Amino acid sequence: MSSPTPTVGRMRLTDRLPELSGAEMLATLVPPPQFDGATFDTYRVDADFPSQQDAKDLLIAFSGGGAPTKARGGLFRRAPKRPDVKPGVYLDGGFGVGKTHLLAAIYHAMPARRKYLGSFIEYTALVGATGYKNTVELFRGADLLCIDEFELDDPGDTMVMTRLLGELVASGTKLAATSNTPPNALGEGRFAAQDFLREIHAMAENFDTIRIDGVDFRQRTLDGHALALTADEYDSALSDAAGNGVVSDDVFADLIAHLARVHPSRYIRLIDEINVIGLRDVTELTDQSAALRFVAFIDRAYDAQIPLRATGLSLDHVFSEEMRAGGYRKKYLRAISRLIALTHS
Questions:
Q1: Separation of alpha carbons 54 and 80, rounded Å
Q2: Beta strands in the chain (DSSP E)
Q3: pLDDT tens digits for 290-325?
Q4: Which CATH architecture has domain 22-215?
Q5: Which helix (H) or strand (E) element contains residue 204?
Q6: Are 92 and 198 contacting, i.e. CB atoms less than 8 angstroms apart?
Q7: Do you know which NCBIfam families this protein is assigned to (predicted)?
Q8: Distances (CA, A) of 249 to 225, 255, 259
């Protein structure tokens, strides 16, 4: 079987070596495009899970939108407590209950001059790229920090973030956070407030925990498969893509190696002005570090809603079975659901 002919005259991600200053990295800490219009009004409450309405009411109050609305559900339903006695809120719930939507709604609703929203990895990448002291100075005076998917599986990063948040809270910054499941945590699809608070023990007293129950809508996505194209279908798909923002990396392993040379904080610039990402001859990843970098890359592509077109192994099988059964299982499952969505977009 002959190797596919490289795509002539088309950009490759491996040709890009983006640079970002601290100020530029700071400017990227805004809600992803799919949450540009996220508001409390557009958060669709599931009537079967009253905690969703409770959370919405509490977060409206936290964001400066007035007192929570009256409790629903009868005379014996206890009204939720106002969270504004503490500078931080932690949204505790499983996958797919709208935590990121609510986080973005807080960002949009709070009348703040300086506010930021990013994933945990974006904040820690900023610390890694600019240094701890410089990061503190960049955020000093911020009114609000929203941290999505606070990582609990790296003690070093957790300690750095706890220290950073402690300094910022002391200077008046408000916080809103969600977190992922720690390695090998019990309870599939669930997050646990006690795990989050234990890991950030030095900061725990600054957070009010808001529980959000519900059905995991992402699980439905996992029932499908990522779309793998033939060589001809791939060429046709990329040729049909409008504009010049199309990249085609003809050697999947080269892209994986390139991600190790680009700091994760710069992945967002790696895909800047890209409309379609093409990957030829996808193969299984067996190195954990490489796989986690690919997860971070896919997170950025998903945030930007960039379609993926690929040949070779279906992208929902790109992570080895051992990885998908290990301590980072939740990260890989989230990435798989996003890969499936992007290959069908």
A1: 6
A2: 88-93, 115-119, 144-150, 174-179, 207-212, 228-229, 246-249, 276-282, 308-312
A3: 999 999 999 999 988 999 999 999 999 999 999 988
A4: 3-Layer(aba) Sandwich (3.40)
A5: none
A6: no
A7: ZapE
A8: 21, 7, 12
